[in-house]
Structure prediction request, 495 residues.
Amino acid sequence: MPRVLIFVVAYNAQSTLQAVIRRIPRKIFEEFEAEVLVIDDGSTDSTFEVGIQISEPFPGVPLKVLKNPSNLGYGGNQKLGYRYAIREGFDYVVLLHGDGQYAPEEMPRLLHAAIDGKADAVFGSRMLNSGEALKGGMPLYKYVGNRILTTFQNRITGLKLSEWHSGYRLYSVKALKKIAFERNSNDFDFDTEIILQLRMAGCGIQEVAIPTYYGDEICHVNGLRYALQVVHATVMAGLSRLGIFHDEKYATQGSPYRSKFGYASSHQMALDAVQPGERLLILGCGPVETVAPFAEIAEDTLLVDLEITGQHLLLSRNVLQADLNAIGEDDLGNQPFDTVLLLDVIEHLRDPAAFLSTLRKCRQLRNARFIVTTPNVVFAPIRVMFALGQFNYGPRGILDKTHTRLFTWGSLRRMVRQEGFDISAFRGIPGPFPLALGHGLASSLLLQLNSLAITLMPRTFSYQLFCEITPQATVENLLEAAETHSLELCELMTA
Prediction:
């Protein structure tokens, strides 16, 4: 049987706690290996004593009651319960409030929704059935505030939840292990932050309609403060997904780099510039999903990266596992290439200028076109962060912690020219909003606005820079050409 922890958060709940626990359906303890954990968050009344007394009329049901020495806050108290669930090896943890606002009788529905639907989280929603929340006594101002905040958060995150602000929740312990919930706020915005973390970890969330009940319980939430905290957390998570801002609580497992096709982005613009049947050299190819569209249209492709997998071998017969910082002319074979792709690569190198200089000397690349993309470090939101004293390195984006060189519109142009390349195209790229918000109306609108801003002030509003360059002949090339030409003339003169 799945192991289930029924986690009751309690603060000054001496008058309601006993009734809440007695209302937990007995069949849960028959269908699951269940335990009840009550954590009194430093109450000033007799909540803890009431909890201890409850264990007597519950024979055969494991019940554990703890009391924090000091008040940790709503979010801080949840951290203890989820850590306990992980430590003790439970499969699921159900969050139940000790003030009776959420019906314990609905708990089996949450559990079966998680198990049958294989959801990582299940939320009890008071908003799924239209009008039920108001009929259940939810104050009008809370209802309106809930709807406004939920709509805003759905637009920013791309989720379609009917309610972000229900405290009746079930989490799979497997999902909790994926996210850094211990870094979250200790306040009531903890619930918003954990949804944002689940979203960024790719976890599935399911909702179940529950009845609304508002009695004489004391509300400890400062509504205005809570709304501001929720908006701030949602916006910061969105900026983190864009790579503009980084907060370690939103870091995800696995490779942070993803493909950016289907909208105005560095990957799509490069794909549009490549002609079918070309011979491609992709330096720093990255994940398979990033290079697959190029390999499909190319006649031949050489993939070069420090990490080459079996999936890369399925895409191309020509692969080279190498450190780009040490790449040389002899490493690239004898066949010439039509196009060289350096997509979001040069900023990772120890010396981008020396790297370009080396490529310019390669005989296989003398007639090649280079497509280079890189972040613009003076993108407007980054400037604002700098002005506010923020400089956040993160796992990806403009301030990726693996970047060794930062570029602006002017510095990139100067570098490629100084290293002997002619610029045939140079333009700005808008932010990858669909990556943060999903493909929808909000991301489409932001892309259009960003693109319009780029036409007006490209140096400020370009999230990334896109340039096509061609190598000039080196002095050695010119000397060879002069010698060959002279030899041909001499042959003609003596003929």
Observations:
- The two ends are 96 Å apart (CA to CA).
- Residues 223-242 form the longest helix (20 residues).
- The longest strand covers residues 421-429.
